[in-house]
C-alpha cells in the first residue's frame, strides 16, 4: 500500500496532474500506522527494589552516587609510571540516545586509560542456601573496538577494604560481563576458587556461550547482562533476558574445580629393556645373490641408432661471423673481445649437431639397497606409560558455589572506546527482584528507543500530510538519484535490446521495427497493438522512460496519457518482469516513477 502510494505520487508529481485521488490513499496509510502504534507515554520513575537486595543502583541521584561510589586512585603494579595510574574519568549522565526522562547512568569518559570505580555492598553477600544474582546494563554508546565492560564482584578481604586503592590485583570472587578486542568477543564469567588443601586461589573460566554475540558492541543500545548462580552449583547467563549460557560450576569450567583423583607417577621411568618396537627387521633374511646394489638407475639405450645426417663435426653454436668488435672496446679493461654465439646455420637442416649420445633409459637391473623384510617383534611390550598413582594434591570440593563472600563491586577497565554507559546494577538473592527491576528500567528503555525510532517515520508521515508539497521534495531528493542510477547503471540496454529483439524475431517471426523508432513513443503505438508479444515492445518503454528522465519527453502528453490509462488496469502487486529489473537496480527504494507498459498476454 505504501509503495503504491509513493509510486502514484511520484508519477503524478512529475506529470503535475491532480492529487485528489492520492490524498485518500495517504490518509489510509496514516490511519493504518496509527492503529498499529498507539500513542503511549512512557513514564520513567527511578525504581525502588521490591525485595531483598545487596546493592541496587540506578545512578539517577548524583548526590547519592557521590557518597556511595569511589573512584580509584591506585597505581597499577609493575608498570611504567606514565600509564600505571588509574586516572580514567567517570560521570553521571543521561544516555546519548533519547533516554527516559530522569534516567541517568554511569559513563566511562576516558579512552586508553586505566579506570576503576567501585562501591560497597549494603551488606556482604555470603554464599549459603540462596541464589546469587547480579544484573546490570551496558551500552557501548560509541561502539567498541577493544576493551571491556565487565563487573568485578570484590571478595571480602583486607585488600578490598579501602576502595580508593581498587586495582587489578584487588581480589574478586566473580568477574562477569562483556569484553572484546578486535574479533575476539567474550562474555566473561570467571570465579576464583579456593584450594581447600592449601588455600591458594585460582581462576576458573566458564565455557564459551553458545552464540558469539556481537550486536552489543555495534548497535550502541543498552544490553542487559544477568548471572544467576544457585546453591546446587548450576548457573545461567542471560543477555537481554535470553539464556545464552548455562551449566554447572563443577563441569563447565577450565581448569576444572576438582583435580583428577589419579595422576601419572612423575617418578616412574621407562625401564632400559622396555622394547617399544612393534616391528623389527627379519634377522633370518639374507640378501639374494643376484641382488646388485650398485646397478645404476639409468643406462644408455643400446638399441638407439644415430640418426642419418647427424653432423658430428659441426658445433651447435658458432661465433657470429657478422659481429664486430665495438669501437670503444678496451681490451685492458674489458678483456679479449669475443663475438657473441649464434646457432650454427649448418645445423638447420640436420637432425642434430655435435657429438651424438645414446639417450638414457631406466635400468631393469636397478634394485637399490637391499633391506630385510619387517616381522612382528617377539619382544614387543607395547607403548610404555608411567603408572598411575593417587593425586597427592587431590581434593573434592562439591560445593564450589560457596565462594568467598562478596563485599563490594566495581569496574576495573581499560577501553579504546569511551562513553560506555553502565546502569541499573542489582545484586540480589531473588530472581523475581532482578526481573522486576529490569521491567522498570531496561525494558522501559528499550520500549522508548523502539518507539522513538518508529516515531521518526510517523512524525514524517503526519507532517507531510499537512504539507503535501513535501511529497514533491521527496520525489526529487529520493526519486531523482534513483532514476539517475538506473540510467547510468542500465544505460547499456540498447545493445541488449538489439540482441533480444534479434533473438525474438527469429523465434516469433515478428516484424522487427527500426531501432530508431524506440525513441519516439508515438511511433511505437501501432507496433504495440500489432505485435504485442514482441520483446522489443518491452524494451521500448524502458528506453522511453530513460529519455524522459533526462527531460526530453516530459511534454509528450499523449505518451503520459497511455501510461496513466494502463495504471488503472495494472495490478501493482505483480509488476511486469521488466519493471522488476528496474526496481532491483534501486534496491528497496520506491519503485521507479517511470511506468513500464506491461506485456499484454
Ligand atoms: C597449592 O596446591 C596447588 C596444587 O593443588 C599448587 O599448584 C599450588 O602451588 C599450591 N600452593 C601453595 C602455596 O602451596
From TrEMBL:
GO MF term (any one): calcium ion binding
**Signal peptide residues on this chain, from the entry's feature table:** 1-20
Subcellular location(s): the record lists: Endoplasmic reticulum membrane
Q: Where is this region: Disordered?
A: 250-326, 500-601
Q: What is this protein called?
A: Calnexin
Which PROSITE patterns would you find in this protein's record? CALRETICULIN_2 (PS00804), CALRETICULIN_REPEAT (PS00805)
Source species = Gryllus longicercus
Bias category Basic and acidic residues: which stretches? 266-289, 500-509, 549-560
Amino acid at each position: 500500500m505504501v509503495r503504491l502510494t509513493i509510486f502514484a505520487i511520484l508519477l503524478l508529481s512529475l506529470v503535475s496532474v491532480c492529487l485528489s485521488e492520492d490524498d485518500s490513499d495517504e490518509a489510509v496509510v496514516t490511519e493504518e500506522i496509527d492503529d498499529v502504534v498507539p500513542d503511549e507515554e512512557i513514564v520513567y520513575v527511578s525504581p525502588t527494589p521490591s525485595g531483598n537486595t545487596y546493592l541496587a543502583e540506578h545512578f539517577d541521584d548524583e548526590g547519592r552516587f557521590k557518597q556511595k561510589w569511589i573512584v580509584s586512585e591506585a597505581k597499577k603494579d609493575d608498570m611504567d609510571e606514565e600509564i600505571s595510574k588509574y586516572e580514567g574519568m567517570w560521570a553521571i549522565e543521561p544516555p546519548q540516545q533519547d533516554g527516559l526522562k530522569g534516567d541517568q547512568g554511569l559513563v566511562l569518559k576516558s579512552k586508553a586509560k586505566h579506570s576503576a570505580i567501585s562501591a560497597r555492598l549494603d551488606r556482604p553477600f555470603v554464599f549459603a542456601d540462596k541464589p546469587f544474582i547480579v544484573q546490570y546494563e551496558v551500552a557501548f554508546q560509541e561502539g567498541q573496538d577493544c576493551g571491556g565492560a565487565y563487573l568485578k564482584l570484590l571478595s571480602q578481604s583486607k585488600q578490598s577494604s579501602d576502595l580508593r586503592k581498587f586495582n587489578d590485583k584487588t581480589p574478586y570472587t566473580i568477574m562477569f560481563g562483556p569484553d572484546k578486542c578486535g574479533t575476539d568477543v567474550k562474555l566473561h564469567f570467571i570465579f576464583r576458587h579456593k584450594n581447600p588443601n592449601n588455600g591458594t586461589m585460582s581462576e576458573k573460566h566458564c565455557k564459551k556461550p553458545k552464540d558469539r554475540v556481537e550486536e552489543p558492541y555495534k548497535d550502541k543500545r543498552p544490553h542487559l547482562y544477568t548471572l544467576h548462580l544457585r546453591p546446587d552449583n548450576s548457573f545461567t547467563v542471560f543477555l537481554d533476558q535470553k539464556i545464552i549460557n548455562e551449566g554447572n560450576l563443577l563441569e563447565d569450567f577450565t581448569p576444572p574445580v576438582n583435580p583428577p583423583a589419579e595422576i601419572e607417577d612423575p617418578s616412574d621411568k621407562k625401564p632400559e629393556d622396555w622394547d617399544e618396537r612393534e616391528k623389527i627387521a627379519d634377522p633370518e633374511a639374507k640378501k639374494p645373490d643376484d641382488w646388485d646394489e650398485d646397478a645404476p638407475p639409468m643406462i644408455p639405450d643400446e638399441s638407439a641408432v644415430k640418426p642419418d645426417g647427424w653432423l658430428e663435426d659441426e658445433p651447435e653454436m658458432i661465433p657470429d661471423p657478422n659481429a664486430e668488435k665495438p669501437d670503444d672496446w678496451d681490451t685492458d679493461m674489458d678483456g679479449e673481445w669475443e663475438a657473441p654465439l649464434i646457432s650454427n646455420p649448418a645445423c638447420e637442416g640436420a637432425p642434430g649437431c655435435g657429438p651424438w649420445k645414446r639417450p638414457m633409459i631406466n635400468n631393469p637391473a636397478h634394485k637399490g639397497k637391499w633391506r630385510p623384510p619387517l616381522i612382528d617383534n617377539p619382544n614387543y611390550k607395547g607403548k610404555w606409560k608411567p603408572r598411575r598413582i593417587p593425586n597427592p594434591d587431590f581434593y573434592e570440593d562439591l560445593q564450589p558455589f560457596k565462594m568467598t563472600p562478596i563485599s563490594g563491586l566495581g569496574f576495573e577497565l581499560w577501553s579504546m572506546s569511551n562513553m560506555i554507559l553502565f546502569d541499573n546494577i542489582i545484586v540480589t538473592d531473588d530472581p523475581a527482584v532482578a526481573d522486576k527491576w529490569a521491567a522498570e528500567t531496561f525494558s522501559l528503555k528499550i520500549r522508548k528507543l523502539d518507539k522513538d525510532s518508529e516515531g521518526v517515520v510517523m512524525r514524517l508521515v503526519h507532517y507531510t500530510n499537512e504539507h503535501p508539497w513535501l511529497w514533491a521534495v521527496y520525489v526529487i531528493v529520493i526519486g531523482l538519484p534513483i532514476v539517475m542510477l538506473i540510467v547510468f547503471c542500465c544505460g547499456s540496454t540498447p545493445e541488449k535490446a538489439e540482441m533480444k529483439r534479434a533473438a525474438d524475431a527469429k523465434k516469433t517471426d515478428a516484424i522487427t521495427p527500426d531501432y530508431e523508432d524506440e525513441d519516439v513513443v508515438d511511433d511505437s503505438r501501432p507496433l504495440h497493438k500489432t505485435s504485442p508479444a514482441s520483446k522489443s515492445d518491452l524494451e521500448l518503454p524502458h528506453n522511453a522512460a530513460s529519455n524522459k528522465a533526462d527531460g526530453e519527453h516530459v511534454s509528450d502528453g499523449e505518451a503520459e496519457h497511455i501510461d496513466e490509462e494502463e495504471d488503472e488496469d495494472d495490478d501493482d502487486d505483480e509488476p511486469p518482469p521488466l519493471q522488476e529489473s528496474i526496481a532491483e537496480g534501486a534496491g528497496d527504494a520506491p519503485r521507479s516513477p517511470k511506468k513500464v507498459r506491461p506485456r499484454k498476454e
